[in-house]
Design brief:
six-stranded antiparallel β-sheet, alpha+beta, 651 residues, 29 helices, 14% strand
């Protein structure tokens, strides 16, 4: 895992500036740094290395191909790189390998096969900058699902790109102008979705895309280059549903276990110590189970625990680890430990990011880094196998809601609003001993609030957007801001599916998973120079999952049926079956308690008016309602607070 960066400037590049850009990414690659400039000094590549495969100098970057035509700066891992070397040999290419790094493999594949064929053949996660010295073409590309980040854009006549915005900001040509339209998206989603970033003129390359920029024919021609896909979730979804898996449920479980075992086996390849995050939930327990089944030694596993009731899964992780025989590491953290992370967030996340589980993710990365350099995670299971509550809600709520007359919907919504979310939470807590397990919901008050809003909607797309929104009219909060089109609001971006549940899963994979979950894990882990790998997001696993019918994913009101069956072959069912908790913190009470003064300073009415990004009235009203306990506005407020904290440090 590494950090990459680069610049194109026809009038010439200052090598010291490039070195400073690399230094800004040192946390992503502390082992070594390298820079490369073309002969005209108009194009430069930089690399900060975290050595994982081939720790020798043979893995140093930027790297020049043997034919000396191509130069690469690469962040990521190619898990099938040894197989790719075999394929090159079988097709008659005689290569004298300098080492055994996947970077060298990738570079020679580009040299022999070209860009698109190589991308299609790879299994891995990556962000790549490839320079063709003959054609004078710079190609930027990103892995299929967006595990690795890549920002790029023009600042005047200067092209800047890199793994994180902090590298681009070092360059004197960079103009740090906040994109108010992107800010509206942060308020709605808690993240800024690709292709947007918080800065005007700089975007994120979309997952599964590549862009070839001709730099030998003038800046105006170069600026016309547009990204294009080499792989899309929608194509996989539609192909899978049109060619469904035809075997029995038992055969389907076998197929998934075999595919996951293959993916995990490849991702366990490392020349440095390796382990896994273990929460005790279905996804991480499945990954660790299949790791341990392939390992001759106990797998190192890591979890953190909180003392607050309802937020601690460490005890469950410990039970799973004991059953599997892993070398388990756990750390119970206090609220003070978690709160101490908050001042670091604007630096860790180079643009404002509002998923508060960023805090425990950073903490578990810290304890893992003490023992390993690579950690596997279980992310992706919810999007592939129907794990989120909103998919069940599509079956149990949206279907019946559509059939209700408007006046009945209105009465039901009024009934749900009769109690505040805080009152719903207290009611469910009192009833918990007598409620069936499926009704023991996390944050029931928030769910009741969302359901009351859903009752007024007209179609499935609006239903999904409502469930994935925090501020539902952010354009009215951001001064001068207007929501731009996203994948969610563009009807043509939705795949053709057989049901709303599948459509929601496909959209989550392209939005929430890529721009929230994977961003959260990448930045938190790389802040401490820890590489994370996500075996469920091997594209072959994704393609198999989309061949499975919905009944293999959601059954009897419960998601991830197929994944559960794989796990139950390795871990007793009773260790796993419990209400889904997520990976959160008691943010609502913290904002009323230990975080109150910090939040008040950032939400000060005078400050909001002076900075000029937000209309202060609605935010102040929401803050007062939260403090009084009348409403739980933790998520809405956290999005604003994360922008305010970021603004204080970055503009």
């Amino acid at each position: 895992m590494c950090g990459i960066t680069g610049v194109f400037k026809s009038s010439g590049i200052d090598e010291q500036v490039l070195e400073a850009m690399c230094a800004a990414l040192e946390h992503r690659g502390p082992d070594s740094k390298g820079v490369w400039l073309c002969s005209s000094r108009s194009l430069a590549l930089g690399h900060s290395r975290l050595a994982i495969l081939d720790l020798s100098d043979a893995g140093q970057q930027p790297m020049l191909s043997q034919c000396r035509r191509y130069v690469i700066a690469f962040n990521g891992e190619i898990y099938n790189h040894l197989s790719l070397r075999e394929q090159l040999a079988e097709t008659g290419f005689d290569i004298s390998w300098r080492g055994h790094s996947d970077t060298e493999t990738l570079l020679e594949c580009f040299s022999k096969w070209g860009v698109e064929k190589t991308l299609v053949q790879t299994v891995g996660m990556f962000a790549i900058a490839l320079w063709d010295t003959e054609q004078k073409v710079l190609t930027l590309t990103r892995d299929r699902v967006g595990e690795k980040p890549l920002y790029w854009g023009w600042s005047g006549d200067t092209l800047l790109f890199g793994s994180e915005l902090k590298a681009l900001k070092v360059h004197p040509a960079f103009k740090p102008e906040v994109d108010r339209n992107a800010l509206t998206l942060l308020l709605r989603h808690c993240y800024i979705p690709a292709p947007y970033s918080i800065y005007r003129g700089i975007g994120k390359l979309m997952p599964g895309h590549w862009v070839s920029i001709p730099l030998g024919g003038g800046v105006e021609l170069a600026k016309k280059a547009l990204p294009q896909p080499y792989w899309t979730i929608n194509q996989v979804v539609e192909r899978g549903l049109n060619q469904p898996f035809s075997g029995s449920p038992e055969v389907a479980v076998d197929a998934l276990e075999n595919r996951l075992t293959e993916s995990i086996g490849e991702q366990m390849l490392s020349d440095v110590p390796l382990g896994a995050f273990l929460s005790g939930g279905i996804d991480s327990s499945t990954v660790v189970s299949l790791m341990q089944a392939q390992s001759s030694r106990p797998v190192k596993t890591f979890t953190i625990g909180f003392q607050e009731g309802g937020y601690n899964e460490a005890v469950h992780a410990s039970e799973v680890a004991k059953h599997l025989g892993t070398e388990h590491h756990e750390l119970y953290v206090s609220s003070r430990d978690a709160l101490s992370v908050i001042p670091k967030l604007p630096e860790i996340y180079c643009e404002p990011f509002g998923d508060s589980s960023q805090i425990p993710t950073f903490l578990v990365s810290c304890i893992a880094k003490q023992d390993v350099t690579v950690a596997l995670s279980g992310d992706g299971g919810d999007e592939l196998f129907g794990g989120y509550n909103r998919y069940v809600a599509a079956q149990k709520v949206w279907g019946p809601v559509q059939k209700l007359p408007p006046f009945v919907r209105s009465m039901a919504a009024s009934g749900l609003r009769a109690l505040t979310p805080a009152q719903w939470d207290k009611l469910f807590e009192k009833l918990k001993p007598v409620l069936p397990r499926k009704l023991q919901l996390a944050i029931p008050g928030e769910k009741a609030r969302k359901l009351s809003e859903v009752l007024s909607l007209t179609d499935g797309h609006a239903f999904y957007r409502q469930l994935t929104s925090h501020w539902t009219d952010p354009g009215s909060i951001v001064i001068g801001g207007s929501e731009p089109e996203t994948l969610i609001t563009n009807p043509n971006a939705w795949p053709d599916t057989d049901c709303l549940e599948h459509a929601m899963m496909a959209m989550d994979a392209q939005t929430y998973m890529a721009d929230d979950i994977l961003t959260k894990v990448d930045r938190a882990a790389m802040a401490v120079s820890l590489e994370t790998r996500v075996p469920m997001l091997d594209h072959r696993v994704i393609e198999l999952a989309w061949q499975m019918p919905l009944e293999y994913k959601i059954r009897n009101g419960q998601g991830k049926w197929l994944l559960r069956q794989v796990l139950y072959r390795h871990v007793p069912k009773e260790l796993i079956e419990r209400p889904k908790m997520g990976f959160g913190i008691p943010l609502d009470s913290w904002l009323r308690g230990p975080l109150r003064d910090w939040a008040e300073s950032l939400l000060c009415e005078h400050r909001l008016r002076e900075e000029g990004f937000f209309h202060a009235g609605p935010i102040r009203a929401m803050w007062q309602e939260h403090l009084s306990g009348a409403q739980n506005w933790q998520y809405h407020l956290w999005n604003v607070l994360m922008f305010q904290a970021w603004l204080e440090r970055n503009v």
